[in-house]
## 1
Amino acid sequence: MTALTTVAPETAPNWGRIALTLFALGALVFLVAFEQGALTGGAPVLHEAFHDARHLLGFPCH
Ligand SMILES: [Zn+2]
């Protein structure tokens, strides 16, 4: 009879996944709140889109 061996689960934090998640969250906050046209050639297309989305959701912004 052979003994079954089990592998201990990985307990160390997955730093790569944590770093990627933090970067993605930071990029999302930048796009939603601070992007003023730097990524779209000067036209604040993303800014206006998120601004309109806030109004559609009834979020008071001004
Ligand atoms: Zn507004």
## 2
Amino acid sequence: MIAFVGAIAYVVMVHAQETQVARELQYNARFGVPDVAPRCAWVFVLDDGVLDEGVLAVPGGFPLHGDLEAVRSSGVAVERDVSANGTEYMVLTTPGSDSTTVQAVFDMRYLLADRRHLLLALGIAQVAGLLVAALIGLGVSRRTVGPLAEALARQRRFVTDASHELRTPIARAYLRAQLLSAAADLPADQRDSLDALARSIRGLSDVVDDLLQSAQLNQGLDGVPVDLTAVASSAVAGERERAAERRIALTVEHPGGPLMVSGVETALRRAVDELLANAVRHTPEGGRISVRVGSRGGHVELEVADTGEGFDPAEASLLFDRFHHGRGEKRFGLGLALVREIVTGHGGEVEAVGHPGRGARFTLRLPMARTGSARPRERITSACP
Ligand SMILES: Nc1ncnc2c1ncn2[C@@H]1O[C@H](COP(=O)(O)OP(=O)(O)OP(=O)(O)O)[C@@H](O)[C@H]1O
Ligand SMILES: [Mg+2]
């Protein structure tokens, strides 16, 4: 802003000065006589070949004899800028009255000094303005970002502490459930229920481990190598029964070998489970769901496509917002938001493509793990027996 305002002020000032000098030269050429010209101005008159320079000291190099002769013979006025004696002069040579030729000279040194002062003042204002803006920016950003970073750190601490504290009681509950189900004199139905209880506790333990690992991942620790082909196959196997109930054909397609990414296996499994659960829910009976895993340009891609109700393409990016769900849906609208959090936490991205009535396709794109770069870490679930 200071530079903009300064540039306008400078241009206006130079224009005003030049107009003023041109007006003075015109006046002096018409009415001035040698020796009577005002300060910083001189007038020379060539009359019948005789030059009247006056008696005052004139600056070196003046008058401009060439211009006087040229104007005398052509009768056409000449105006020029001359740099001499460490300053600039504006010179107007014009035919005078009674066959005379007049040359008016104006020394611009004070006007040039005014311009330099203005530029200096603008430069100082510019530097001071930038300094003040930088200081204000620094202060404001510290004030706003500081509490945010602290809140995030506190949240991460809470998640790690809470999940760490929950691991021991969960491990004990799991052990107790297993011991009870191993008791010899239990009726079969109670044993089945206890086995189911043990499996649920095991699932709870996975979720808690997952939370702990996610919090550590956010701090830049390496994940473990995870085979997305295996994750996709086991997620499809888990959903097969539900799909069969609804007569939906569920297929999985992969290159045959492992496709490794670095991350938290349970979290990635949850993301794929969520995509599959959504696909099954939004595909009518007799439809088709296909899961495809492949690699492209240093990334592993996992795609879940269905032939279900689809969605409006304009809605695609909103689906990943928390609490966003389709019209008439009575669910939480959290699943895809969690999928995006998991995927971006792994340095990847997720994309949704769909058309009303023509199905939907969700693609997870994750950086492929470089062989040997991911450091295997001891699984935290080892706390559970
Ligand atoms: N395969 C799909 N086909 C069509 N629409 C889908 C599909 N998957 C998700 N959607 C749309 O995206 C919305 C958001 O999905 P999201 O999984 O986030 O929430 P939800 O399934 O409604 O609830 P939650 O997963 O929390 O139980 C859904 O309500 C639905 O409208
Ligand atoms: Mg969902």
